[in-house]
């Protein structure tokens, strides 16, 4: 908006209401945007509901849960006041209101801070009305908190009482509520600067040491960032108005830096935008002050420098923000799969020569899938002893399944549960210590500090070995929670397996961004066969021949948006890798390919394939119809879900989700049909039973996130216990149930 426009607004006696709304949002759009985005993130996604439930449920479980719950309450008390103050600061400019538009600014100030409260109410109502099991304590806490939040929201109606309601019955009813809230709001306004400074300092502290964030909880960490971002962006808006006749040049510069961080194309767009802005300032000097022309020159030079850097280093660092190249580690010469299987079979104890050999396919699904995979293997290892633990030859993991496989591998590799004096439930205890944790809060702490800084200012491009992105924190948290049993997570994949060790071989599936092909990370170089093409089984970074087990697990679990793509320098160029679930979320494709490349003399009668999946993902994707179609059906139908997205924008998303789900089912059925046909054709000489181990979702929430409610962990264990007990009873092995150890001490 130019100077002439500013003068025109002030000289107008009666600006239109739409003009006044635009004038207000021109100044206050940053705090409003922060409030809207945070509110949507809190109210809509299921992982946010799970995080909010977890904060409530964990209040009484331990000290960290109590601190996190208290911090969340404090932030919800002060966040509305901080957003109110940020909007007021942005609007503190010469303004003119006509008589019919005087409510515009009060409405913005009153409701910008109440939007997160409305979102919290919506999330809590969803939790109460949803199908997930919550404890009586959580239900009671929600019923206590809801009226308080609703009261604070209703006090926002006071802005409408300044008109016709002021002297009416409604105004008199709202007056006491408004008076009480004004005292709370005055307290927040009085200390909002101190609270904002404290939030910034706390955000810096958890950025330096992210594990502290687990004491605050994910909701508090996100609210801290929103508070700091709203005040900072409001300040940039004010600075822009001082430098120029426009309100957004500094905001535009921040957004442009983020766009430039994507690489050469983004930096060129940033340079073009700054060039246009500079030309506007210098071609029309009457509208631009000397300060604005100086600012335009600085921004133009900055854009030129970043573009030069991007074009010069595009091979090593194609994305300036988050260059974050994963460095390789030294590794021995990798082994070949077929010969390694033969060596592993020969190294088995004589009494296990004719016992089953297990190939495990672990599907993806965040921390839920990780805990399910690791706990299934742990419970069977504790119940059946070394016979089962040493019988697992390979685990093909995808996303969270890879993390669970790495956790179980770390326990087996350490040998901590193989000593004579180990507890009967040693494997289960170690899985709880490693995975029943808050992995989300430390990741958010890094996202809102170093990762965000690296997006605006490409710090990581100064040194290709710096890793500032948030996925790094996931690796560190897994190693930290593993303790002594996780020392092997920092060693290379090629060193993670030898035939005498009798530990599972990890096959961690990822997807290459450039081609969409599946990439397998394993201890082996290739899987060769005279009948099939060689199957590559490694990523070999330049400067080092291998990647660590923890890094490989989280390369397989990198879902964009949650974590950035992994970038590895291979053959002089950067390759990007994302979540293996893009290609196949079941992990069975890799197992299928490995079985076809086993030696001809493999003990086929002893091989067993177990597919770990949830009952939800095991259900075939069926077409839906509003009413039952007439006549016979080739396949069963289901009623159309009301939340299915339709139309030109929603239909592609619905199609993608349906095709992705069907693709996973096709992989399972194809593998099962192939080996069933092989068994019949070869008269059972190569019988490979494939068992789909289904975990029913009995009330607990299936959420793809890195933070789960403790009840979800307990529910997974309870369902596993029920399924394993039923299997042991059918085989008359009920004595093995003694080692299952219920659901752990935190579930009592």
TrEMBL record:
Q: Which residues cross the membrane?
A: 64-87, 108-129, 141-160, 191-209, 215-236, 243-261, 267-283, 295-311
UniProt keyword Ribosomal protein, yes or no: no
Q: Record's InterPro entries? A: Acyl_Trfase/lysoPLipase
Q: Extract the signal peptide range.
A: none
| SUPFAM superfamilies named among the record's database cross-references | FabD/lysophospholipase-like (SSF52151)
Q: Which UniProt keywords apply?
A: Membrane, Transmembrane, Transmembrane helix
Stated name of the protein: Patatin-like phospholipase family protein
Phylogenetic placement of the source organism: Bacteria, Pseudomonadati, Pseudomonadota, Alphaproteobacteria, Rhodobacterales
């Amino acid at each position: 908006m130019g100077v002439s426009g500013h003068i025109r607004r002030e000289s107008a006696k009666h600006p239109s209401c739409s003009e006044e709304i635009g004038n207000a949002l021109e100044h206050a759009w940053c705090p409003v945007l922060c409030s809207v985005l945070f509110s949507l993130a809190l109210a809509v996604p299921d992982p946010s509901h799970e995080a909010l439930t977890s904060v409530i449920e964990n209040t009484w479980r331990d000290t960290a849960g109590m601190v996190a719950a208290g911090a969340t309450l404090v932030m919800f008390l002060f966040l509305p006041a901080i957003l109110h103050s940020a909007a007021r600061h942005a609007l503190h400019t010469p303004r003119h209101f006509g008589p019919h538009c005087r409510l515009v600014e009060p409405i913005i100030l009153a409701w910008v801070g109440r939007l997160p409260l409305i979102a919290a109410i919506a999330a809590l109502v969803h939790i109460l009305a949803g199908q997930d099991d919550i404890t009586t304590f959580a239900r009671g806490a929600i019923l206590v908190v809801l009226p308080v939040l609703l009261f604070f929201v209703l006090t926002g109606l006071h802005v409408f009482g300044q008109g016709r309601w002021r002297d009416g019955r409604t105004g008199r009813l709202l007056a006491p509520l408004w008076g009480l809230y004004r005292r709370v709001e005055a307290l927040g306004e009085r200390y909002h600067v101190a609270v904002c400074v404290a939030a910034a300092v706390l955000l810096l502290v958890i950025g330096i040491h992210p594990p502290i964030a687990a004491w605050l909880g994910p909701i508090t960490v996100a609210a801290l960032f929103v508070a700091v971002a709203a005040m900072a962006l409001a300040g940039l808006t004010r600075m822009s108005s001082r430098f120029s006749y426009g309100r957004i040049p500094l905001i535009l510069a921040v957004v442009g830096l983020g766009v430039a961080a994507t690489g050469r194309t983004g930096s060129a767009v940033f340079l073009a935008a700054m060039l246009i802005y500079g030309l506007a300032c210098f071609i029309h000097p009457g509208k631009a002050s000397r300060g604005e022309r100086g600012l335009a020159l600085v921004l133009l030079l900055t854009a030129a420098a970043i573009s030069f850097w991007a074009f010069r280093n595009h091979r090593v660092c194609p994305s300036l923000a988050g260059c974050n190249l994963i460095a390789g580690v030294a590794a021995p010469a990798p082994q070949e799969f077929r010969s390694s299987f033969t060596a592993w079979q020969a190294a088995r104890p004589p009494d296990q020569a004719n016992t089953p050999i297990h190939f495990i396919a672990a599907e993806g699904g965040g921390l839920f899938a990780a805990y399910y995979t690791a706990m299934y293997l742990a419970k069977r290892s504790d119940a059946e002893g070394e016979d089962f633990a040493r019988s697992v030859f390979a685990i093909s993991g995808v996303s969270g399944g890879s993390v669970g496989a790495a956790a179980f591998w770390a326990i087996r590799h350490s040998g901590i549960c193989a000593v004579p004096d180990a507890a009967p439930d040693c494997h289960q205890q170690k899985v709880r210590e490693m995975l029943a944790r808050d992995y989300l809060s430390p990741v958010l702490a890094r996202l809102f500090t170093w990762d965000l800084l690296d997006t605006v200012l490409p710090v990581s491009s100064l040194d290709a070995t710096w890793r500032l992105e948030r996925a790094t924190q996931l690796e560190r948290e897994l190693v930290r929670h593993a303790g002594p049993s996780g020392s092997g997570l920092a060693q290379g994949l090629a060193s993670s397996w030898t035939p005498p060790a009798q530990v599972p071989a990890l096959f961690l599936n990822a997807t290459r961004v450039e081609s969409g092909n599946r990439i397998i990370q394993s201890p082996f170089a290739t899987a060769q066969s005279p009948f099939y093409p060689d199957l590559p089984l490694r990523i070999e970074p330049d400067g080092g021949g291998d990647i660590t087990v923890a890094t490989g697990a989280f390369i397989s679990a990198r879902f964009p948006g949650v974590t950035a793509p992994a970038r590895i320098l291979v053959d002089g160029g950067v390759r990007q890798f994302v979540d293996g679930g893009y290609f196949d979320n079941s992990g069975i494709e890799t197992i299928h390919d490995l079985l076809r490349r086993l030696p001809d003399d493999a003990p086929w009668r002893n091989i067993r394939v177990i597919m770990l999946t949830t009952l939800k993902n095991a259900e075939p994707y069926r077409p839906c119809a509003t009413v039952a179609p007439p006549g016979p059906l080739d396949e069963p139908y289901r009623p159309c879900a009301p939340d299915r997205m339709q139309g030109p924008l929603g239909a592609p998303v619905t199609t993608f989700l349906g095709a992705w789900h069907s693709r996973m089912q096709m992989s399972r059925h194809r593998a099962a049909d192939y080996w069933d046909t092989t068994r019949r054709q070869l008269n059972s000489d190569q019988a490979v039973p494939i068992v789909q181990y289904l975990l029913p979702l009995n009330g607990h929430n299936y959420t793809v996130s890195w933070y789960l409610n403790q009840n979800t962990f307990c529910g997974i264990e309870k369902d596993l216990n029920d399924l394993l007990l039923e299997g042991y009873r059918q085989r008359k092995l009920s004595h093995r149930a003694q080692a299952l150890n219920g659901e752990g001490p935190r579930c009592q």
